[in-house]
Amino acid sequence: MNAESVTEFLGGVPLLQRLPSSSLKKIAEVVKVKHFESGEYVIRRGESGDGVYFVWEGEAEVCGHAEEEISPEFLLKRYDYFGNGASTSEQQADVIASSKLTCLVLPSDHCALLRPKSIWNANERQETRAPIESILHLDPIEVNLFQGITLSDAPKFGKVFGGQFMGQALAAASKTVDCLKIVHHLQAYFLLVGDCDIPIIYQVHRLRDGKSFSSRRVDAIQKGTIVFTLLASFQKEEFGFEHQDAVMPLAPAPDTLLSLEELRERRIIDPRLPRTYRNKVAMAKIDPWPIEIRFCDPNASTNQTKSPAKLRYWFRAKGNLSDDQALHRCVVAYASDLLFIEVSSNPHRKKGLKISVLSLNHTMWFYRPVKADDWLLFVMESPSAHSGRGVVAGRMFNMKGELVVSLAQEGLLREARRPGTAIRAKY
């Protein structure tokens, strides 16, 4: 067995899939191989053991003791694990090889690797994490179950931000697959408004695990009801044909553009804008964003000014992200919902009209590795709106001009209800 096959095998162990990829690689370096003949004791009850055992090949029986007789209780097969992470802990049962057995053993003095401080980084303290990394952190509850929360300083608009649902759900799915497989496609459905004040349970359904691809479905649950669902496909990286016909449009370099904070200050004193709008901007509470945005075409339009159904901006995560490609794609999924469906309302804005937009579904294709803490150009346009729905399509390019992501979203597009209008249904 070589290092790659060991890492791939460990990535199939449910206990280890929730770990940072860096932890998994370290475990692959320190595990020891042990062989046992059929009928040989692997661990005896009452012994301290050598660490945690992972079944590589063969089978073993866990045997209890009833009236001094050893009786098999259940069978351990490939990807199963047993043993204790503490050298002082005693084993509660006998484990006996029922065939020729090969195990990888994580020694007790390395078992701290099983208890990382974050699902993204084994050593990182919370105060040093990038803001978005904290937003996308999940607490593993059980195999296939994770819990996420909406942080007090996370962006929200009276409800859970749609990008948070996508980023956290994709994180949950990513933590149930081999770390060598990375998401290449996702399809999300926004079913109900999320409540910012209560935790979100993410339940992962393992639809398929193949040699090259894995598929997952994730349901986000609040108060016992599914409020969001995501389908995702993961692929092990491989060499193949490659081409790119899409050309990144010309755009000013991000370092030459105004930040959101600078743009806000400009708008407050811009005489072309209505005084009431400027006062509203000045008085508005500004929540810290985990994503830095630079608009390519800043203008004097407001939310009541008609404009083309197009938008371009550069974005990147604030701070330095952990070196985990799964995390970077979760961050891109989070950011992809920023101002996306709103573009479909641009041609319909006018003074006195309030428009309500709400995401319905969202699709993404990841083509190439992406680095979310470097600048990415997000180009979007809305080709159509009809029957109370708007559609937007987008592309993301890195600084080299490589197309890294394509995406599309459909959303509800309606005139906002006036005060006093009865609300009969969610949509």
From TrEMBL:
Q: Which UniProt keywords apply?
A: Hydrolase, Lipid metabolism
Instruction: Give its localization.
Output: Peroxisome matrix
Q: Where does the protein principally reside? A: other
**Alphabetized InterPro entries for the sequence:** Acyl-CoA_hotdog, Acyl_CoA_thio, cNMP-bd_CS, cNMP-bd_dom, cNMP-bd_dom_sf, HotDog_dom_sf, RmlC-like_jellyroll, TesB_ACOT8-like_N
Ligase among keywords: no
According to UniProt, this protein's pathway is: Lipid metabolism; fatty acid metabolism
Every copy of the Cyclic nucleotide-binding domain together lies at 15-86
- GO biological process, any: fatty acid catabolic process
This protein is called acyl-CoA hydrolase
Species: Spinacia oleracea (Spinach)
